[in-house]
Every structure is written in C-alpha cells, then in structure tokens.
Amino acid sequence: MKQMNTVKETLKQHILVLITLCATLIVTTLPVQAEANTIKSSKKVLMVVSGNGQGEKKPGYEFDEFSKAYSVFKANGITVDVASPKGGEVEADKYNPNKPYNAVVLADTAIMAKLNNTLATNSIDAKAYDAVFIVGGKGAMFDLPNDTALQHVIADIYQQQGSIAAVCHGPAALVNVKLKNGSYLIANKAINGFTNQEERLFGKKWINDFEFMLEDKLTQRGAHFQSSEIMLSHVAIDGRLITGQNPTSTVGVATALVQSLGLIPVKVEVELEDRTMAVIAKFIAGDKSALETLVKNQEQYQLPLVGMYGFYFLKVAETTLDFEQALALMMAAQKAINNPKIDMTIAKTQAKLGQIANAKATLNQLITAKPDFKPAQDMLKTL
C-alpha cells in the first residue's frame, strides 16, 4: 500500500498532480547538456510564482514546474528573474527534492537566491523583459488573479510584442488582464489550463476554497478553451500567448516560449516521468504499439505510473474503448504495482467489459496470493 500511495502522489503531482499531451514534450531538463552551458542570449524572462504558500495551511507554487521550465530557459541561455505578488521568500507545495530535475535547480545557487528573495510584482519594469512565464500550483488560484501590478506587467509585456506563457493553474493570473483597448488579453484566443475534470480528481483539498474554477473562468472571459485527456501534456499556442494544461505540459510550454522569442530550442534529455507520460499519450491516441514498446523496455519508463494513470483514467472513462485502454494500462503495470486494490479494479473492469473468465482468473490469482482477502472472495461468488 505504501508503494501505491507513493506512485499515486507522483501521479497527482505530475499527471496535476500526476499526465501537450500530447507528445509535444520536445525537451525537459535533467542535467543539462554541456553544450547548452555555452549558449548566451540577450533574452530575459520573468518567472512568476505564487506567494500564497504556507505549508498545509495554504497551497503554494509547484517546484517541479518551476525547475523544469527554468532549466529549459537556462539551457537556451535566457536570463531569468523571479517575482511574486509581495516579493521576498515564497513557499512551494510539497515536492521531491531528489528528483534529478529538482536536484539540479536546488544546486543552482544563482537561481535559488532569486527564488528565496523574489521581486515584488509592483517593482517590475516590464520594458526589461521579453516574456513572462507563470508557474502553476494551487496557490496561483488565490493571489495571482487579483494582483493588479502583475496584470499591468503582463499586459505591458504583451503589448510591447513580448510573449506570455503559463502552465497548469498559472493561467489564473491571466483571467483579469486587460489590454489598452479594454478587452481581456485572453478573449478569442486558444487557451488551456488545469481542467475541471482534473480539478475534481486531483484538487479536492482546495477546490471549495477557490473563487472560481479555472476552466470556467477562462471560458467566461471569452477564451477558446482546449484540452486533452487528464494529466496528459497539452500546449495551446495562440500567437504570443502560450498555455499548458497541467504539470506534464511544463516542458512543452517552456520550449514553445523559447521558440516564440525567435530562438531554436536546445534539445536536452527527456526525464523519466515525461517520457512515460508521452508513451501513455500515444497509446490513448490509438497507437497500440506504444504500450507494447513500454512493456518491452521497462527500464526506460516508470511502469507503476502507467498503471496508476490507467486507474485514474478509469474514473473518467465513458466509452468501451476508454474502459479497455484503462484496463490495458493497469494490467501492463499490475506486477510492478502489486497491490490488491489495483487487482480488484482490474477484475471489476474485466467483468464490466464482459470478460468474465479473465475476471475470475484475476480474482483467483489474488486469492492465491492472499487467501483471506474477502473482497476478492465475495466478488468471485457473484461471477
């Protein structure tokens, strides 16, 4: 059960919260290639993070998203400053500092100094920046939407032909931004962000405290909301406005921002979780061979993440194909996860699809491993 909870948390943070979707994950950052360190650019990006975080009391920003995006910018020689509504020290939501892409950033004393003493948004000179990148995290829903100083910075940079990018809950900072003509920045533009469906699956802790649901508010402002399946990468690009659906979309958004600045992005290594999610995306899109490739090359992917994605995808399944795909993903990782809850879910899905013999076989295997497991015994009697 401990292993399943760990994988579940990884999925919620990465899929976020655990999966632009689309395989637009051109790059991500793990130890950046040596050649990237020699690149220099005159471009400057302002990264914005929520200052709302107070541990378990109030949600903050997502460090995973910050580290992945920053590493893309660094690899491309882009100068980065960091800002928050009030400035000063900011607190991230709980994250794993041992993940390679986080460890690299934590060891970067220059950027950590900026992150530990952020600039206040009301001190920002928009003329100094070519772009803004707004990091997500639940905290963004609380202090970014009504930060008038930030609204002016975003509008000014956009109107001086700069680029605006945001990922996951980061687009919350855009909902009240107006241009000089009085129109909303996002009106009539393609956009995305954390979807209502993802929020209800992975954001239950804070959802009742939100002033609005992000997808609803973006649509209300006249934006053309688009999205992919839960937690899969999806990047929406409308000219100089670039938005990503969830944490899995981070690298895709950062890379698109680099391109919008007229640079050719440096290709760096795709890290394990994003690589795994990209294969899942291909499978969900109809490429059956993608799952076969994953199973045959398990050392190159995070197999438990595959199974947990299937578990959550099952919760939003509507068609027979959805159920079949969720089942296939869970079964691919069944041994790797080795958890009775997954086994029972597999058996129930098999029964729902009319695969009674398979369901019985799954239950009998579970009972053999756990003779006293009553849920399996009870279900077997009903088949």
Describe this structure in words.
- The protein is an alpha/beta fold and 383 residues long.
- The protein has two domains: 246 residues, 3-Layer(aba) Sandwich (Rossmann fold), CATH 3.40.50; 101 residues.
- The protein has 17 helices and nine strands.
- The strands form two sheets. It has a seven-stranded mixed β-sheet. A two-stranded parallel sheet has the order 6-7.
- Strand 1, helix 2 and strand 2 form a beta-alpha-beta unit.
- Helix 10 packs across helix 12 and helix 13 packs antiparallel against helix 15.
- It is elongated and about 70 Å long.
- The N terminus is likely disordered.
Short description:
The chain is of the alpha/beta class. Helices cover 44% and strands 9% of the residues. The chain has two domains: 15-260, Class I glutamine amidotransferase (GATase) domain (Rossmann fold, 3-Layer(aba) Sandwich), CATH 3.40.50; 272-280 and 291-382.
